[in-house]
Amino acid sequence: MIQPVAERTPAGTSYLVTGQGQPVVLIHGVGLNKEMWGGQIVGLANDFRVIAYDMLGHGQSHLPAADTPLEGYADQLAELLDHLQIPQATVIGFSMGGLVARAFALNYPQRLSALVVLNSVFNRSPEQSAGVIARAAQAAEQGPDANVDAALDRWFSREYKAANPAQVAAIRQVLASNDPQGYHTTYSLFATQDMYRESDLGSIQVPTLIATGELDQGSTPAMTRQLAARIPGAQSVVLAEQRHMMPVEAPREVNKMLLDFLSHARTLTESAKGIVA
């Protein structure tokens, strides 16, 4: 596969495109960037046109205004699709990217062909909310790397960290190098918007997969099941023994799950259009 070269939209969104076929968009989490999706880009590009981009305030994309709401992040994705002349796409969001994917599904339903939410949040308990809000405040005061060690301990297994020190160090560097304002704006939304338009989730009418890892402390299996229960026909999957960064730590397992779902979603879509009896 030819290594894709980053490009930019007129509004300043940095993105990569590779592969051929139906478009699949990948949205990273807070403090990360499009590079986190290397394993999925390789795994999906033989069958799909894969688009990975940097969220507002991350990577090489432009900064959001300090008061940008979650809808602004959905608008960024719509502008990217307009730039690429893509009327509809499957959207896969990880963690904060899962919130953006949900916002996109609710605000641009006509642009969505299927939805995947990985390791994201829904209906936090008061204790969970207090914890993430405290971490957001700490990062606002001390910078994006204020709680990086604790984050990496939550995100990765000890075995993976020990076997892949260079990759973990690279992710640490990405987290530490974030623009403070862009990081704070995004993290504040991640900390407070887990129930974003929750009463409207039943309006999502596309094939949907909600998945997390069995050992994900912040994006728990209970959250995954509760969110899936709000979306008609949504599948919920919990990958055994996986933590938060399962797209990075277990790309083959995650890719198999995604490819199985995308094949199922394509069949459902074609059947609905009368192409398949």
Automatic annotation (TrEMBL):
Keyword Hydrolase: yes
Gene3D superfamilies reported for this sequence: alpha/beta hydrolase (3.40.50.1820)
EC number, as in UniProt: 3.1.1.24
MF GO annotations: 3-oxoadipate enol-lactonase activity
One GO term describing the cellular component: membrane
Hydrolase listed as a keyword: yes
Entry keywords, A to Z: Hydrolase
Enzyme class name: hydrolase
Alphabetical list of Pfam families matching this protein: Abhydrolase_1 (PF00561)
Residue ranges of domain AB hydrolase-1 in the record: 23-250
InterPro entries the UniProt entry points to: AB_hydrolase_1 (IPR000073), AB_hydrolase_fold (IPR029058), AB_hydrolase_sf (IPR050266), Epox_hydrolase-like (IPR000639)
Protein name as catalogued: 3-oxoadipate enol-lactonase 2
Organism (species): Pseudomonas reidholzensis
